[in-house]
Specification:
Helices cover about 45% and strands about 15% of the residues. The chain has a 5-stranded parallel β-sheet, with helices on both faces. Strands 6-7 form a two-stranded antiparallel ribbon. β1, α1 and β2 form a beta-alpha-beta unit. Bound molecules: iron/sulfur cluster. Iron/sulfur cluster binds next to α4. This is Phosphoadenosine phosphosulphate reductase domain-containing protein.
């Protein structure tokens, strides 16, 4: 039985992998990382944060087994342009194509459902996501080692990895709750984008420019960041959101 640990480069999936290793040993582990850009793409703002690759390279060997590094060879804005669709909180073609379908295709070419168990880093605070994942991965079996006691907070997991002399992913120290897509996520809310604008204005500017290009491809501006002011809901683009924040300064 192979044990496939879905390593995202975040602290949760690393801790999940460590629990698998502690319980079963690492002889059957394969760590699977799906990159959100071409492997040799050095653009500073495309794909994952550069520090994620540092963290992944330094930390995966403590889980042991092998590391499979796969990539569709595209980044999120290429996915949106091809789909002529801006990803958002409800629909994430980026994650579907670059992560879920890429991983599924890799898996189906190599293993039948009775040969593997999949391990995801969803923790006890996110149990609602676990059911969705189990449905998605059927007929493969999925387990969530972090849902089990003893419960670990993100800080506990960061302290754990630091015991090995490995610095936690820098995005956590910058106020991001996830180490995904370099701190830009189409599923983020206004607080997330406010943090990105403050912490990494150049990265924000890159995504703002890509979104403006996408609107030209689609032929219209589409709603993106949800804002509620005086009980009124409105939706802003990255550009409009930035301009609104800067006006208030
Ligand atoms: S982290 Fe967000 S932007 Fe990146 S692939 Fe996942 S859903 Fe898309």
């Amino acid at each position: 039985m192979k044990r496939i640990v879905f390593l995202s480069g975040g602290i949760g999936s690393w801790a999940a992998g460590m629990r698998v290793m502690q319980k079963y040993g690492n002889g059957d582990i394969i760590n699977l990382f799906t990159d959100t850009k071409k492997k040799n793409d050095r653009h500073p703002h495309r794909g994952e944060d550069q520090d994620l690759y540092r963290f992944l390279n330094e930390s995966w060997s403590y889980i042991g087994g092998g590391l499979e590094w796969i990539s569709v060879g595209k980044h999120i804005w290429q996915v949106f342009e091809e789909a002529r669709y801006m990803g958002n909180t409800r629909h994430d073609p980026c994650s579907r194509i670059l992560k879920r379908e890429a991983a599924r295709s890799w898996l189906e070419k190599r293993f039948s459902p009775d040969e593997v168990i999949l391990y995801l880093g969803i923790d006890w605070t996110e149990e609602h996501r676990a059911r969705k994942c189990m449905d998605y991965w059927k007929p493969y079996r999925v387990e969530f080692p972090l849902i089990d006691e003893p419960y670990l907070s993100k800080e506990d997991m960061c302290v754990w990895v630091e015991k090995y002399g490995i610095r936690r992913p820098r995005l956590y120290d910058m106020g991001f709750s996830h180490n995904n897509c370099g701190g830009f996520c189409v599923k983020g809310g206004q607080g997330h984008f406010f943090n990105l604008l403050n912490q990494m204005p150049e990265r924000y500017a890159y995504h703002e420019a890509k979104q403006e290009e996408l609107f030209l491809v689609i032929g219209k501006r589409v709603p993106f960041i949800r804002r509620t002011i005086d009980k009124q809901i409105n939706y802003l683009s990255l550009k409009e959101f930035r301009e609104e924040i800067q006006k208030k300064k």
